[in-house]
Amino acid sequence: MCAHVLIADDDPRHAEVVRRYLAADGHEVTVAHDGRTALDQARRLRPDLLVLDVMMPELDGLHVCRTLRAESDVLVLMLTARTSEDDLLLGLELGADDYLAKPYSPRELTARVRTLLRRSTRSAPTPGSGARTVGRVTLDPVRHRVTVDGEPIVCTRGEFAILAAMSEQPDRVFSRAQLLHHTRGIDRSSTERTIDVHVMNLRRKIETDPQRPVQLLAVYGVGYRFSPGPA
Length: 231
Fold this sequence. Notes:
DNA-binding response regulator, DNA binding, WH-like_DNA-bd_sf, transcription
């Protein structure tokens, strides 16, 4: 699948190597060398995927990711030299779709890009995949669209995968391991703790009071269930 990829990396040599690999894979590629330019280009060009370095001048990658995630569902692959679990979870919490730790090979990055694009639901609609409603939330798996009381919200691929799985069987209890299975290949660095981060983010988006959820509920010692909420 060919796409428009925006590379945001302040190392010109490194960015050029990545650009060549992605271009050889058939993608249209644009390069930015600081966070502010990356943010401006992402808004203007609307790329399919953003390869985003965390450490950049002007605005860092975390700021760019947070800002873009509030505005769009562009795929974000973050590059970082910081590999602790807390750093990875922070990126996912801010809305990154996948993480790649430095050092890495350009071939691995190209493979990650292919995987993210393949799993993206921006493909043409398929017959028989209708929208489904659970309480205040309506999910359209064809258009990758979620609304709450008719108002659209932006979900990352990982968040959407979890919500899509749970909305197929409302009130069923899913273990973290089961939900993790649905995000494999989307969040390559996923752990069961990552599921808790996704659920926390989803509650902020779909619950009236995220501290007192009525739809996305924890089941102590087991996992989570997605309920229609109070009648």
